[in-house]
Each structure stands twice: as C-alpha cells, then as structure tokens.
Write a structure and sequence with these properties.
The complex is a heteropentamer, with two copies of chain A, one copy of chain C and two copies of chain D. By secondary structure, chain A is mainly α. Chain A is built from ten helices and no strands. Helix content of chain C is about 40%, strand content about 15%. In chain C, helix 5 links the parallel strand 6 and strand 7. Classes of the chains: A mainly alpha, C alpha/beta, D alpha/beta. Chains A and B meet through helix 1, helix 3, helix 4, helix 5 and helix 8 of A and helix 1, helix 3, helix 4, helix 5 and helix 8 of B. The complex binds adenosine-5'-triphosphate (2 copies) and magnesium ion (MG) (2 copies).
Amino acid sequence: MLLRRIYQFLIIYCAGILLLFLLKYGLQLSDYVIPSPIELWQTGCAEFVRYFKDVADTLRVAVIGQIISVIFAFIVGIAGRKATWVGSIVKVAAYNVQAYPIVALAPIIFILLGDGFIARLLIASMICYFPILLSVIGIMSEPVVDIEHFYRCTGRLRWQLEVKIRAFENLNKLTTVISGSATLAMAGTIVAEFIAANAGIGYSIRIALYQSDLARILSALFVIGITLSVYQGLLEWAGALIKKGWET
Amino acid sequence: MLLRRIYQFLIIYCAGILLLFLLKYGLQLSDYVIPSPIELWQTGCAEFVRYFKDVADTLRVAVIGQIISVIFAFIVGIAGRKATWVGSIVKVAAYNVQAYPIVALAPIIFILLGDGFIARLLIASMICYFPILLSVIGIMSEPVVDIEHFYRCTGRLRWQLEVKIRAFENLNKLTTVISGSATLAMAGTIVAEFIAANAGIGYSIRIALYQSDLARILSALFVIGITLSVYQGLLEWAGALIKKGWET
Amino acid sequence: NAGEKLNYRLKWLFNASVVGDLYADVHHIFTDHGLDVQVKAGGPERDAIRELELGHAQFGVASADQVIRAMSKGAPVIVIAQLFQINALQWIYRDDQPPIKRLSDLKGRTIGITYGGNDETIMRTLLAKGGINQKEITLFSVRYDYTPFFQRKADIWPVYRNTQGVFLSAKLAKEDETLRFLDPHDFGVRFVANSVVTSEQMIAKHPQTVIKFKQALLQGWREALNPANQKKTLNTLKQFDKDTSETILTQQLAITRTLIQPSPDIKIGTIDTAAWKETEQIMQAQGLIKKPVNVEKALRNL
Amino acid sequence: MFLSCENLTLKYSHNGLPVLDNLCFEITTPGLHALFGHSGAGKTSLARLLTGELPVSDKFSSGAIKIRNMKTLLYSYNTERLPGWSAISHHLDKITPASRKTQKDDLITLFGLEPYMDQPFNRLSLGQKNRINLVRYLVQDFDLLVMDESLANVDERMREKIILNIKTLYPDRLLLYISHNLIEVAKFCDQIIVLRAVTRQPQCIVVQGQNHRGYQPTAQLPERTMLELMNAA
Amino acid sequence: MFLSCENLTLKYSHNGLPVLDNLCFEITTPGLHALFGHSGAGKTSLARLLTGELPVSDKFSSGAIKIRNMKTLLYSYNTERLPGWSAISHHLDKITPASRKTQKDDLITLFGLEPYMDQPFNRLSLGQKNRINLVRYLVQDFDLLVMDESLANVDERMREKIILNIKTLYPDRLLLYISHNLIEVAKFCDQIIVLRAVTRQPQCIVVQGQNHRGYQPTAQLPERTMLELMNAA
Ligand SMILES: Nc1ncnc2c1ncn2[C@@H]1O[C@H](COP(=O)(O)OP(=O)(O)OP(=O)(O)O)[C@@H](O)[C@H]1O
Ligand SMILES: Nc1ncnc2c1ncn2[C@@H]1O[C@H](COP(=O)(O)OP(=O)(O)OP(=O)(O)O)[C@@H](O)[C@H]1O
Ligand SMILES: [Mg+2]
Ligand SMILES: [Mg+2]
C-alpha cells in the first residue's frame, strides 16, 4: 500500500512535469519561464537534502497541527451536533472563522500570539480542522436509531456514548477524512510558513517565488509530495489497524 | 433560521472585537497596532457600501466556484471510491494537488491559464473542493449492503445507482458538507483575489494589509461574515427543501 | 498596426508608484499615439517577464533583479526605460532610536528583511560594505504586515519610500512618533528598481510600436509628475487608489517625483547603465546569478 | 397496574387514512399479554404510542392513554443492534444493574447465548441477535415491556422456552408481546388484544388466551382460542 | 435441475468451531424446499454459500457445491431495504422485466400491497417491507431463490396465501425457504433439509414434507412430519 502510494505519486508528478516540458518546447519558452530538464535535475539534486530537512520540519508541525485539528474538530463537532442554541452558535462561530482567509486573519493572530511556533501551529490547524469538522458535524448529528434506541429509552445515552456509537458506525468515513486531512495540515503549515516563518519548506518556497525560481519550486513540490505520500500511506495503514482493533 | 444565523454572527463578531479592544486597553497598545473603536466605527461606516459591493462580487465567483467544486468533488470521489488501481491513482492525484499550497501552484496556474476569470475560479475551486471530496470519497466507498444487495445480485448495480443509493443514505452528511463548504469557497475566492485579481474583497484586503489598516480589515471581515451567514442560511434552507423533496 | 491590443503588466497594485502609467492610460496618451493599451495591475505572484514570453503581455514592469535573473536563464527580455532613478526600497526606523549616519551604526539593531526579496540583497550588500558581521545584528523575517515594527520587535523595517513610507509616517505621527529613513543610495549602493521591459521579438517585429509605446509612456510620466498637472494627476490616482486619502496621495506624489527625477537634468526614463552594471555585480557577489549576464546587452535606449 | 386506551386515533399524514381509529381497551393485570393482528394492522404504531415513543395528542393523534402504577415503559423491537466495538458480554455487563448480575447470567444460559458472549454483535445469527437484544431489556427496571416481534427470528423450541421462563421470572410486570405466531400467542398469553382492519369497529377485540404456565407435553392445541383469534383478526 | 453439497465445511475464523461440518445433501426436483434448524444452526451461512455470496473453498471453507441446469441463483433475506427516494411502485417498475409486468401486478395484489404502492419504503410496517422485498425477487429471472426468513414478520394467514401461490406460480423453479415455523414448513414444503447442531453427524437430515398444493380447510396438522422434524433438529 505504502509502495503503491509512492509510485502512484511518481507517476502523477512525472505526468505534471511532462506537461510543463511539452508546453516549454511546444511554445519555445525560455528557461526562465519553465526550467530545462537539466536545470530541474541539477536543482533537484542540489536541493534535495536541504528541502527534505525543511519538509521534515514542516511535517513535524503539520502532524501536531493535524492532531490539534482533529481534537478541535471533534470538540466543536460534538458541541455543534445538537440543534440547540449553543450547538448552533458554536457551529456559526466555527464556520465564520473559516470564511476569513488566513491572510486576513494573520495580522490579528500575530498580534495575539506573537509569531512563534504557536502562531504557525494555529494557522496550520485552522486550515486543516474545517473539513474534519464538517464531516464530524455531519456524522455526529445523525442518530443511529437501531443502536441508540435502547440506551435512549433506558436513560443511558450520555453524550460520550452517543458520540462513540456514531463514530464507530461511521469509522470508515472518519478515517478517510482524517487521513485525507493530513494533506490539508501540510498545506496549512506551508501557508503558515509562507506568511510568517523563517524555517520549513514554506519559507523555502517563498524565497524561490521571490526569485522566480520555478526549478526550486518544482523540486520542493516533489519533496512535499513524496513525503506526504509516505505519511498518508502510514496514516491509512494505522487507520486500518485501528479499525481492525476496534472491530474485533 | 436565516435571522438566527445573522444575529449569531453578530454576537460572535462583537465578541471577537471586544477581545481585541480588551487586549488593546489591557496592554495599552497604540492605535496603529489595534485601531480605536471610533476609528473602527468610522472606517466601517465609510467603507461599508464599497466593501459590500466587493463582497457581492466575490460571492458571485464563490458560488460558481462552489458549484464547480461540488461537481468536481463528486466526479473525483466517484472515480476514486473503488479500491481499483484507477480509483486509487485518481485519489492520490487529488490528494497531492491539495497538499501543494496554492501560493506555490499559483505561478504554474498563471503560466498555464493566464490571469482571467478562469484562473481565479480554479484557485477558488481548488481550495473548496477538497473537503467535499473527502466526504464524498468516505461516503461513496462504503456500501449500503441491505439496499445494494438486490441490485448487485441481480446484476443491476450500475455505478449511477450505487452512487445514488449511497448519496441518498448519507444525504444529511452531504448537505452538511456542501453547505459548510460555502465558507471555503468564499475563503478560496478571497485568496484567489488576494493573489491575482484586481477586484473583489480579497483585493481590498490586500490593499488594507499593505497599508497596515486593521480597521479596514476588520470592516471587511464584518461584511464577509454577514454576507456569508446569509448565504449559508439560504443554502441550509435549500438543503432542507431538497431533502424534503427527495424523501417524500 | 494601430489599434492592436497591447497588454502592459505592472509590477504591483495600482498606487502612486505607477502614477505615470495610469496617467498615460486615463488621459488617452496611448490612444493619441495610436496604441490600444490595457494597463494591468501586478502583484507578488505576477511576473511580467514570463507574461511577455507567453504572449499574455507585450510590455511590462520588472525590477532589475528580475531582469538579470531572466537573462541568466536565457529569457529574451529587453529594457526600454528605467522609471526609478533611485530605488524606492528603503528602511524606516523611529527617531527615538540613534540615527544611522554610518553603516556601522547598524550594529546591534534588529533589521527586517524579506528573505529572498531584493531588500535582502540590498541589506546584505550594505552590511558587506560596512564590514558588519551577521552576528553583530539580528535579522527579522518580514511578512505581509507591519505589526512587528509597530510592536518594536524590529527596529528597522523595509518599506517603499514613496508609498508605505508616507502612510506609515502618517500613522505613527498620530501617536507623536516620527520616522527616519535609511536610504542605501546614501551609502553608495545603487540597486536598480522598476524598469519597463519588452521582448526581443517585439522589438524585432514591431519596433515602431515599441518606440511609440515608450514615447507615450514617458510622456505620461512627465505630465503626471509635472507640478502644473498636480490636480489632474491626483484625480487620476484617486480613481484607482480609493483607499488612500488625498493628503497622503499628495505626499506620495511629491516623493515619487524625487525618485523618478532626482534632478531636472536627468531625463525621465533614462537608463542608468552604470547602476545596472552595479546591480549585476551585487547579484553576482551574493550568488544570485552564477555567471555574468552582461546586462548592458539588454538595455536599449531607443 | 393499569393500562388503558381511550378513543385512540392515529394518522401518519393529513390526508391519509387513520391507522388506529377510536381504539379502546384496558389491561389491569400483570403478566404476558399479546398484541396480535395482521401485518400492517398498527401493532408497532400502537406500541410506540403506549410507551411514549410517539406522542399522543399532537396534530396526527388524539385520544388518551392512561397508565397507573407504572413508571418505566420500555419498547423493544427485533431490528435493534448492539454497538460493534466490543463483545456482546461487555455491552451487557455495562447495562446490567449490579443487583441483576446473576439474573443476567441466568438469562444468558437460558437463551442459549453462552457460547457467543465473546463475539461482537455483527457476527451473530439473526436469532441470536434477537435474543441478546431481548436479554438486555429484561435486566432493566421496567414496569411495562413491549416486545415487538422480539423473537421473530428464533426457532420455536427456544422461543417457547424463553416465553415460559419470562412468565415465571416476571410475574408482576406487564409484558406486551407482539408476534405473528398464532399458536404461541393463544397458548401462552393471558389477554390478547387483537387489532383488526381499521375499517372495522370496534377496531380491537380482547380475547382470553390459555395463559399456560409451564411445559405441558400433553397439552392440546388451544384450538378454541385460535379459532376465536382467527375470527377476530 | 440439481443441487448438491458434498462434504461442505465452513468456519468463520481460524480457531473457531466450524459452523458447517462435512455437510452432504442433494435436491433434484424443482419446487418449494425448506432449510430448517434452530437459530444459529448455520442456515444463513449455508444459503450464502449455495448462492455464491460466500466463497466455497477458500481458507475457511472446503468441500464442494454442485449445481446443474441452473444459472441464476438469488439469495434474499428479510432485512433488505428498498432505496428511499421514491415510492416503492417506482422502484418495482424499474426492476421488473417488461414481460413480467402483469405478473408483478398480480403478485402485488396477492401480497396485499396494493394500497401501499405509492409509499416510500421506510413508511411501511415490517411485514409490508418483507413482502415488497420478496416480490421484487420473484419477478426476476431465477433458477434458485433462497428466501431467508423472507416472511418472518408477516402474519400467518398472509404467509400461507403467499406460499401456496408461489408454489403454483413457480412450479419449475427451485425455491429454498428458510423459516422457523414448524407447521408451515412441514405442511407446504417438499424436501426439508434439517440442519442440526454441528456436533452431530450427519449434520443434516432431509425430511420429506407434506408439500400441500392448495388451501385445504379440513387438512389435519402434518403431525408425523412435525414430529420427525422436531426429532431431527
Ligand atoms: N412512518 C410512517 N408513515 C406513514 N405510514 C406509516 C408509517 N409507519 C407505519 N405506517 C403505516 O401504518 C400502518 C401500520 O403500521 P405498523 O408498523 O404499526 O404495523 P404493524 O401492525 O406493526 O405491522 P407488522 O406486523 O407488519 O410490523 C401500515 O399500513 C404502515 O404502512
Ligand atoms: N460473520 C460471522 N463471523 C463469525 N461467526 C459468525 C458470522 N456469521 C455467523 N456466525 C456464526 O455462525 C453460526 C451460524 O450462523 P447463521 O447466521 O448461519 O445461523 P442461522 O441458522 O441463519 O441462524 P438464525 O436462524 O438465527 O438466522 C452462528 O453461531 C453465528 O454466531
Ligand atoms: Mg410491526
Ligand atoms: Mg439466519
């Protein structure tokens, strides 16, 4: 599974690069617009190790960010699952915050939190949590009548149990969303680094952008992609394990 | 419902602003770090109409972007629901594209598409489609055995029917995600405008940021929030109607 | 080929830095020259040189470092005019801090730079020139907003003198704080800023169009900066830059004048070849290009 | 212990036919009573009204349900499920009041479920699912328990055993058994509320069952009751 | 038409007891046959093996199932559902081959479903759900149809009517009926495959049923068959 993820990523990446090269040679574009294969290769080789370290750094933040997002999404999703007043205000708050593009919120976040690790983490989590939240709210607000009936009519349906039942019945959907959100956590962290940090791959991409260096950007995308494929593969594998563990 | 959404938004917005003012007067921050209430009020009054027009403009793009995202998410989700090779490569591609922060992809998008409406729409959709995709994949890859069994064993389970069955059985989750993704479409469009456009509220935010004018940014956030609350309220209302229509 | 559609891609959003371009557009100077030009705003993710090659634009504004980088990668770019004689990129600091009279005064300060941006290049050149070790100062990563400077987390912050410099001064003035500027030019660092570029192909195929474009554009700039036209110019600007008050715009315009035409004997649009060569040397010294590109080949005084 | 329905009427929609029309009956003794009638007669609907799962007197229903000396009314049905994350023994332990632990174990043995207690619910056969679901209701505090086809997928021998045992174990509770098995209902139940087509009035008739209390190998079929039931329904 | 099991063995896990052990039987005539046995005996498992829903001879199962002169093998069970987005009539129309439209309408009348055809599935009572589900299988092309408790929640009178009619309508198909109703199975089925506890060998015994073909008001209970069945199970 892991291996398959990796070579599938390679296929897709190569397809993308090929498209760019076709464009380059089709329209006879200079190396400035689209780098030559040689340049790309050289840049890739030269920067691989450094970018890899950057990505590892980013991934670290992303993983923490993802965990926070998942927890946060569950808290909000569980609080917001009921059609009560509190539930719906929590939902409205969660939705509204999301509507503000992070670039607009960034200054406020920096005022509130300074621009250290925490701010970065917050931005990463904010980008990542929302899709999980949507799924969690969707799942948590739908009763599983045939299972809940007994607990409800014997007065035993505390919210923890309700949440557990609904989560378990939708385990597949939840693991899909959670493992899928890894990509979002990654993207979120990169954006945060892009805006604020002076470390991580987002920072490297920003420099490459300022320097109009597409070869570097493509190399960075490669490293991001491959790392993420591995991480995602691992998450799916863990998800399968958990499912197995919970189901037996 | 619509009204409730609006006043809930107002409560949250006011709470946020209050927090900022507490911070301002607690830490004795000057007006250039956090604007004074008077300045905020004046800016708000002065810019409301203009920002409102901008937001309307942005919303127009966001709505189209959301529709595209939903369609796209369904296409990819349906193609990627099966554990086949094609299914999984479609999924890997969809996930990978998402992992790349839009800022890194923007130069490539502009190379490929120029800077028209299309590029903006693409960026907005890319930001919005992924959360929908995750839910759609989750839902579409889980059989509803008790319903599908008949069609499967009589050889009638074409993919359209399979999709329809699974969508219907998870209608609540889908409408939650779709109406929730409105916020993402909006955020996506704003980011696209931020990067590329010369119209819309994203552009105005960029200028306000560039001028370090937090009062303007807060006013813009207000208009975005209120518009979005209305839009979201309408979507939910439409979702309820559709559900009613489909279920009777 | 009058009436042919031409796209002119700016480097940044519409503001006082592009007043001449806007003026030429609004006051039909392009049309008077038989050109149909669409002036398009730029942005950080935009790159006029790429658009020239892809045919999305026929003319554009690019900074000198962009031009030199593009040349080093074989892009067929030609500079037809240099708008800013003095780079608008400068640094601000509060006047309650010791003034920076010599480069060695930078020691011990926290200096904002945009990593990868040309302010980094310029600042590093200044530091090298002043013989200042990186350990003697603190570098602070600059991002979209100015909060770190406001909160005094950084002492010295890069701004565009004629735009940000003006409204930041105004903002701080409200709190009775005054700003000073650190201009690299004063320390002998000349790093060329925005210039008008087109493609080799354009010059080869439509030399007349290029000439007409340059004439029209520079006429626009001359008229825009002419104090006699002040009112007209401000009205033009206001059409595009709705977010800036008239007082600020007036100040911005005044400073822009001094950067575009520092003295009456310099013609607007003059390409300062020596400054370009210095820019190339700086970039090479900083390792931003690997080998010389001989930038003068791309400079065309038509 | 007293349960009565007075002029109970229920519709599921504005323009639909009523499902229950002017229904009246009362039960005054504890024990195993039955709710009988053809499929679609409204047994489930009535049971849900009785236990408060459906509201009485809202826009679609009217009449009154009177309940005296009973506090906990439970409704169980055959398609209920247990959560899937652990073995059924675990779930059962969690919901059994401490005082009923031995009763629970006895019921499990009696219901023939002992070998399956460490299985998760979804690995059981249909009849096993029925039984484990019923067990968990039986160990609750209840005054009235409706068993809506709770043994529908269990074999007859086991069913008989279960019914007889429930009767001896819970002599002072009100048990309302919904089943389509004519003989079983006739043989073991006390009063049998027969729901008839909604067009007939009175919509329900109460027939006296044989109310057998133990295994009687020589017992004849309760033919008179069966006949009565068949005529009523 | 020929169906046989040879030494069929099935486990659900490595270390578990087998559910089916060395099972052998054969059926060579069309008609209504039954699969009978106590709850948990393995009827559902066997039926799913026969119709190919569970694989024969993988790591958990061995033996052979031989099928001759039959192409379409269908397995239906009582908890199946119809999609919810439109009335059941709509779904039924869609899956009925053109040549069977009249047959479908006849079945609906026969099954007493006519008044409910414009309802969506989730508004039906349990027995109504059972019946509509069975109807849609009956209008398919099939050679073997397993009805796994397909009428479990239907009242006896309706059940009898349905069974008798199915027998006359499909004399040349193989119908395998799983039910816990002893009398019904004894009365109406041809051959009755009785699954016994897995510890007993042979695990299954085939008992000849009465195979009644029409409504016989004076018919005695099939006591001998019932006794045989009870002894076997
Ligand atoms: N939610 C509903 N909406 C509309 N009609 C309904 C609904 N539930 C049940 N009905 C109808 O009400 C009638 C009685 O249903 P009910 O489930 O009470 O019958 P029942 O006696 O329990 O039948 P069975 O023995 O088949 O379970 C049926 O005709 C059914 O179609
Ligand atoms: N997926 C499974 N995993 C493990 N064990 C199973 C599984 N399915 C069924 N069993 C076990 O296999 C045995 C036979 O089950 P099966 O469903 O075939 O019984 P049945 O004869 O159909 O019973 P019923 O009449 O109650 O439906 C039961 O003891 C059951 O617990
Ligand atoms: Mg019922
Ligand atoms: Mg079974």
